[in-house]
Amino acid sequence: MSDHKKVKDYMTRDVITVTPDMPISRIKEIIKETGHDGFPVEENGEIVGIITTSDLLIRDITPTVKGMMSDDIVIANEELSISDASRVMFRMGISRLPVTNENKKVLGIITNTDILRSHIERSTPEKVDQFRNTLEQLYGVKTFLSKEQVPINELKPTQDKVYADELQGRTYEIERGLAEPIIVVKTEPHKYLVVDGHHRLVASNQMGNDTITAYVIKLSKKFKLGIEKTAEKNGIFTLDDIEIISDAQHPLIAITGSLRDKNTTIKK
Questions:
Q1: pLDDT tens for the 268 residues of the chain, in order
Q2: Are the C-beta atoms of residues 129 and 204 closer than 8 Å to each other?
Q3: Backbone phi, then psi, for 171, in 5-degree steps?
Q4: CA–CA separation, 30 vs 261, rounded Å?
Q5: Which positions ≥6 away from 75 have C-beta within 8 Å?
Q6: Bridge partners of 183?
Q7: Do 73 and 95 form a contact (C-beta atoms < 8 A)?
Q8: CB neighbours of residue 244 within 10 Å
Q9: Which of 65, 85, 164, 235 is 20 to 30 A from 137, comparing alpha carbons?
């Protein structure tokens, strides 16, 4: 499946811009109010620089943005590929890249976080391909792939438990636009067997969503997969049958939380 994502697919569009004559005291207020640490500087509808918290730390204080902003900056077109944007940011040693139109009007901004988000979402197709190959070799069938919005009430889980701490993390990701698809097998016209993504699914369901993005694998002939038989044997038929574990840590949280005071704390 082709997945050549571009900057426009991941950039933040609701960007706060500031002006060269804005007082530095106001910039500090905006940082406190928004939690953001960098802002494009526009004048007459055209980007002329960028000001970040680093500028406030390393430059001599001046009354306005004009005296402290960086004007030796790199800008990108929204049609630039994510891979090329990553290379530019790596080579230039920058953590954010303003995105503009041909008139240098700011359309958005792409940051290190957006690049990481794109990497996570693009890693899923590799798992899809591995699972399709396994199905084709194990059952002698052909598989067909699509990417769709699937109704959550038509999904049949195959996992009997999820971890509460990982659900918190998945909820955080979904709220901030990480749309990593789950992987399902379509077994009937309105029935999908969940292969991968149970934490994402449960978190999305708890958030009240009706649908979820999924890689849908269709089979050339109808039969019951082994994982479905195992799930039914363990009494797993709906999302209500999944146990939420709150007295143990998800393996991902357990191996990354040793230096944190509270392993379940998610950045706000």
A1: 445 789 998 899 989 999 999 999 999 999 999 988 899 999 999 999 999 998 888 888 889 999 999 998 999 999 999 989 988 898 888 889 999 999 999 999 999 888 888 887 776 778 899 899 999 998 899 999 999 999 999 999 999 999 998 898 889 888 877 778 999 999 999 999 999 999 999 999 999 999 999 999 999 998 889 899 999 999 999 999 999 988 777 666 655 554 445 544 554 4
A2: no
A3: -60, -45
A4: 29
A5: 47, 97, 98, 99, 100, 104
A6: 196, 215
A7: no
A8: 12
A9: 235
CA atoms of 66 and 74, how far apart (whole Å): 18
Q: Is the dihedral of CA 242, 247, 248, 254 positive or negative?
A: positive
What distance in Å separates the CA atoms of residue 62 and residue 60, rounded to the nearest whole number? 6
pTM above 0.85, yes or no: no
Residue in the block written with tokens 């494009």:
40
